[in-house]
Amino acid sequence: MKIAIDGPAGAGKSTVARKLAQELGFVYIDTGAMYRALTWKALQKKVDPGNTEALYELANNIRIHFEYHSGHQKVICDGEDLTATIRLPEVSALVSTVASHPAIRKIMVEQQQEMARSISVVMDGRDIGECVLPDAEYKFFITASIKERTNRRAAELSNSGFTIDYDTILQDITQRDKRDSEREVGSLKILDESIVIDTSTLTIEQVLQKMLAIIQGE
After folding, report:
1. Domain 2-213 falls in which CATH fold?
2. 3-state SS string over the chain?
3. pTM of the predicted model, to two decimals?
4. Considering the chain, what percentage of its residues have pLDDT values greater than 90?
């Protein structure tokens, strides 16, 4: 079975996708983490995020995969654990630009589809239902108000020890929404078949139970 979860930044996609996969015994694939890992590598190698050719070469020469340790998913890139690093603000500021290149998305989508070919998966991102898993049995669109999404991202960064500025985070999320919605390939959108869940006033557990009830036909 394939379950696709789309939605904007800070809506809680990754958290609920991870928990849903655990509940169902499926493999969770965080596609956003793959683009973040590539963005981090580009920063480290001083590759211009607007340079398609250089990014394409980089994407073709790195290996990104997921490992599980004590029930926690780790993002591994070229043997290095980037789980925490890819959440840095400088990565968040550039990941939409990196992901906007059609050539880069083609590479990543092929890798993601290969991962889902022989196992049951829960996959989250921006264009999973439309581009990556168009044949998914369930396509969810998880959203929340921009105020709530900003609060969540601020809390996440603060809990990780980063100094935060609310207005900067709000501006970053607003700009990411705009870039994700307007990009040429793999844009953020609600599909006709999308099951929309607004998480603004819901706990993660409430969202999880809503999704499980739909999947299990309750």
Report:
1. Rossmann fold (3.40.50)
2. CEEEEECCCCCCHHHHHHHHHHHHCCEEEEHHHHHHHHHHHHHHCCCCCCCHHHHHHHHHCCCEEEEEECCEEEEEECCEECCCHHHCHHHHHHHHHHHCCHHHHHHHHHHHHHHCCCCCEEEEECCHHHHHCCCCCEEEEEECCHHHHHHHHHHHHHHCCCCCCHHHHHHHHHHHHHHHHHCCCCCCCCCCCCEEEECCCCCHHHHHHHHHHHHCCC
3. 0.82
4. 67
